[in-house]
Amino acid sequence: MEFATRQSRAISKVTEMKDRYKQWIKWGLLGLVGALVVSQLVPYGRNHQNPTVAAEPQWDSAQTRELAVRACFDCHSNETEWPWYSNVAPMSWFVQSHVDEGRGRLNFSEWNRPQDAREAAETVREGAMPPPSYRWLHPNARLSDAQLAELADGLTKTLGG
Q1: How far apart are CA 13 and CA 84, in angstroms?
Q2: Are 106 and 158 in contact (CB under 8 A)?
Q3: Which of 40, 86, 107, 148 could form a disulfide with 82 if both were Cys (CB 3.0 to 4.6 A apart)?
Q4: How are the residues of the chain apportioned to helix, strand and coil, as percentages rounded to the nearest 5?
């Protein structure tokens, strides 16, 4: 009899713990959904303007430009293609930040202003550009090793460095 009572109490405690665990999960998920809804009210990340293209560099070849369009232009030009997720926070913050930073460092659409392009080819050679997070979301930017080498060589010829 005593064994059955202990067993019954143990089962009761396990059931109580499961219920408590389910409550934590439920409130945690509700909190996460609430945070995502509230984050949509933050105004940053939706300035999806593409200013006019003022001037592009004199590309050494059409192939170099095509590879740059595939791998670089979304962040380093005024010809950004804004995917659907660039309108949903917090992803919109990430995308806007990358585009703002990319255009600030090197902008193929504003070649009429001073640009520091010396490192462009080297970052491609080192595999730092395009960044892995960009390649993951943009299969078209996944260049082969030969294409990356061709892009780096073309950037050197086009931009110097």
Answers
A1: 47
A2: no
A3: 86
A4: 65, 0, 35
Given a contact cutoff of 8 angstroms between Cβ atoms, the answer to whether 93 and 44 are in contact is yes
Give me 91's structure tokens.
């992803």
Give the Cα separation of 4 and 12 in Å (integer).
12
Q: What is the pLDDT of residue 37?
A: 77
**pTM of this prediction?**
0.77
Q: Distance between CA atoms of 124 and 46, rounded to whole angstroms?
A: 28
The rounded distance, in Å, linking the Cα atoms of 28 and 97 is 28
Q: Provide the 3-class DSSP secondary structure of residue 110.
A: strand
Kindly list the averaged pLDDT for each block of 10 residues, start to end, along the chain of length 161. Answer: 72 82 87 78 79 95 97 97 91 92 95 88 94 93 96 93 62
